[in-house]
Amino acid sequence: MESAGDFLNYLTYDYVQRALLVGFLVALCAALLGVVLILKRFSMIGDGLSHVGFGAMALALALHWVPMALAMPVVMVVAFFLLRLSENSRIKGDTAIAMISSASLAIGLLLAGSANVNINSFLFGNIYTMDKGDAVLGTVLALVVLGIYGFFYHTVFAVTFDEDFAAAAGAPVGLYKTVIGMMAAVIIVVGMRIMGALLISSLIIFPGVTAMRLRGSFRGAVGSAAVISVVNFLVGMMASIVWNLQPGPSIVLVHTIVFAAVWLAKK
Question: CA-CA distance, 129 to 262, in Å (whole number)?
Answer without folding.
Answer: 33
